[in-house]
Amino acid sequence: MKRLAVSSALAPALLSALLLAVLVGVWHLATLPSGGAAAPLTPEQLEYLELMGKAPGDGGGARSGFPTPAEMGRTIVQHLSQPFYDNGPNDKGIGLQLLYSLGRVGLGYLIAACVAIPLGFVIGMSPLVYRALDPFIQVLKPISPLAWMPLALYTIKDSSVSGIFVIFICSVWPMLINTAFGVSTVRRDWLNVARTLEVKPLRRAFEVILPAAAPTILTGMRISMGIAWLVIVAAEMLVGGTGIGYFVWNEWNNLSLTNVIFAILVIGVVGMLLDLMFARLQKAVSYVE
């Protein structure tokens, strides 16, 4: 039985490793130099290659310009060996850029949680408040967070704080709606028992409603974090300065595809870790009736 469980756990990992090997193999074949002899380079082209840090005639044939897996590996090792270096405004390590982005996401997300969860409680417990606020929520919810950016830049006049504001806007709606739904669907029997025992409203909110609605609230928080991590990349591309989004845009302007691909991988890995963290929290508060 134990052996069967180990085999079941290893099979997906082996299949994933096989798919990764196939993907890298196809990538390697697609970036091999073409068979024909390369045309002789002009002095200007040779000088450009030297400026880009590439050896003239490297590979012995025409190259597509897309990085090979070996070049990608060297770039990953180079970035990870010095993740926190700081050589000025446009040359910072990937670790520093990530810290800037995570700081903005964390602050905007925390402010959104402080607003959305208490307000969601009120909306979920009061049908009158729900009907009064629902038209505003339905109008504001579909607006793209980036549409708020010009207004934020005009009023706040600070690009970094504007990025935090955009994270707040995109995080608040899933948390608000899920909290209101979770609170409004708490079983009436549990509320009636609390009322019969004359439990005070504040104690009822923390000891009856919050534990019952916690899985739904965590679902909203998990969705909000996913959206916030998506939006911060686009926001930092617009506002510039620092952050993983700005790193991607800056490396694109430098025509460094290896750095752009590396940043994309980092964004994916960090997003996966954030989602795993909320999945663990969600599992911890889930219950079976």
Automatic annotation (TrEMBL):
It is found in: Cell inner membrane; Cell membrane. Its main location: membrane. Keywords: Cell inner membrane, Cell membrane, Ion transport, Membrane, Transmembrane, Transmembrane helix, Transport. Residues 98-278 form the ABC transmembrane type-1 domain. Gene3D superfamilies: MetI-like. GO terms for cellular component: plasma membrane. The chain crosses the membrane at residues 107-130, 162-181, 227-249, 255-274. It holds the Pfam family BPD_transp_1. Belongs to the binding-protein-dependent transport system permease family. NCBIfam families: ntrB (TIGR01183). This is Nitrate ABC transporter, permease protein. The gene is ntrB.
